[in-house]
């Protein structure tokens, strides 16, 4: 019995391994991903609208209250699993990064006791090995794992699907690629990739695993609509931020402010629950690591920079330098966005088209330059004497070699000296930020060292962002901002000598200002900064610098994620329409379009011909009324047509309406569900014989009989708001209606289920009439849903 289980496990492992992509497949996947990303040619809109065809109505009729309870409970169960999964992924990434960094610094400092050159070589080899592993994983296994992933996830939640961003291989590539790129000392962070990781975990749970690798469960697969998957991905985004910053409330607000386009109170509860679960998982992991079971984990890894023991109050005189910090953050953030946009655009158009080898060489070269700068620049800095241990008994100077903390002894002639520039460079970014935020550390850093680090790290961050590795920009932005913030704090300390001013407070404000100037977040970033610093008294100051930096940055360009989304060809719909749309009508917007449509009874050959000659994803379906006029009866999706062509079960010999009662035996609603973040079927993959091409297909049972429509003279701004707020994919533009059959008000939408028996009886009667009309041989079209949309030539 045991041997059978072992044999089955071995066979499953072999099957999964055989499906892993080799280098040729990954290169083809990379070319496909690049082609789809350039110019937006490969992105596809998502169907957040419910397609109320016959299969959907049949499915809804068969579901009772028990299924509804199961559906709701499964949503909460998945919210729990998303929180646990994202929290565990964050724990794994942090442990790996901290231990790799700890081993690297321990080995380097051990060797430089004998030879600085040998230590330099070991330091470079460590960094190159980790960075090479990251870029190799991305280029040969998961090309969609490059970058932060936030622009793609933001596009997905906005209604745009980019191929490959939520696949299982992308999740694996994101996790292990982040470990290599961050552990290798590149000027990037793991917080953005954690948001993408949480979204991938949520999407995989929504489709119950990966069908390609045979890691799925059928009985849990009930989230078959893009709308349900969108809600799960929203939970995953919030979980990623909560895991990255230990900021559950900030995670909820980040999902609300930055990535989502639609929000509901029920979704708010589940997102909040998911973030709370993440906080519990991360907190438990930190408590377990305090016992010393996590190797070099130390006090780093999970971001928490407690500055509650620092500056308690501030004076009116300090508002001016704080406002200056906001202006500096807006200017440097806007400049960062513009420089990264130019460099990334050059990479995508010229450099990265030369193949994976060039991408690997580029990242390794940047890693080499980063290692040379971080190791070489401290060699030119003069060491400073350690603070008096009697006056500052809590300060350990210098710190033990290879451990985290302040006061690094590097290339110093005396054992009681430290190198302030090495204190920043020879730390993980989390520990370096903790040092910059630290209170009661006056004169620990010189202005020359801070300015040198600011220029070099800013340049490295600009060059590194956009390479073929998982790259986040949260922590590098905090590093840059805290550096010039502490510089301003040093000048304030010298100018206002009698005030209780802490340099670490200004470092925090600088970090907030740069993130506000680059990413243009306000509410969520404000809450995140308060949560990770545990200092509520600084909330008004953080709000001040965020408002100023965002206003200054908006004067020059858009936010970082909006710029990158535009560069990747992701057509985001912003919250407000453009000004010119208020004077433009819907008819003017689509005046140059040629409407391609199907008849209700259509020949299979005509369907194949239209699908091959057009790339449209939705087509109107027309029929002829009693007076011979052309009437539009609904909308059919391209993906549904491909399913019908592939199954061939609904082909018929006669050009007459089919018997609708047999549809439920051949199809259910899940047959028409598009796989998550994948290409789906294409017309080139479907092969039909000459006899099958001459058959007919009745589209009435499969179309959406109630698409959204707008009159032709509606302003485009109004259409824009309707399209975005409802998450639509298609809207029909029709002439002005000739008559009104009813008027719905607020009270018509507030009818309770059992309050009005006459209304329920009326609804039942109408439903029976509709069923009889649908089951008849000819559909009655006396009052068509859409009239005069199309006219025959």
From TrEMBL:
Residue spans crossing the bilayer? 67-96, 116-138, 232-255, 267-286, 319-340, 360-380, 450-468, 474-493, 505-532, 538-556
Topology in the lipid bilayer is annotated as: Multi-pass membrane protein
A molecular-function term among this protein's GO annotations: voltage-gated chloride channel activity
Does the record's keyword annotation contain Ion transport? Answer: yes
Gene3D superfamilies according to UniProt: CBS-domain, Clc chloride channel
Output the InterPro entries linked to this UniProt entry: CBS_dom, CBS_dom_sf, Cl-channel/antiporter, Cl-channel_core, Cl_channel_pln, ClC
What are the alphabetically sorted keywords of the record?
A: CBS domain, Chloride, Chloride channel, Ion channel, Ion transport, Membrane, Repeat, Transmembrane, Transmembrane helix, Transport, Voltage-gated channel
Protein's recorded name: Chloride channel protein
Boundaries of every CBS domain copy = 584-651, 703-759
Q: Where does the record locate the signal sequence feature? A: none
Its organism's taxonomic lineage begins at: Eukaryota, Viridiplantae, Streptophyta, Embryophyta, Tracheophyta
Q: Which PANTHER family match?
A: CHLORIDE CHANNEL PROTEIN CLC FAMILY MEMBER, H(+)_CL(-) EXCHANGE TRANSPORTER 7
Gene Ontology cellular-component terms for this entry are: chloride channel complex
| Domain of life of the source | Eukaryota
Q: Which family does it belong to?
A: Belongs to the chloride channel (TC 2.A.49) family.
The compartments listed are: Membrane
> Predominant location of this chain?
membrane
Entry keyword rRNA-binding:
no
Gene name, Swiss-Prot/TrEMBL: LOC103715739
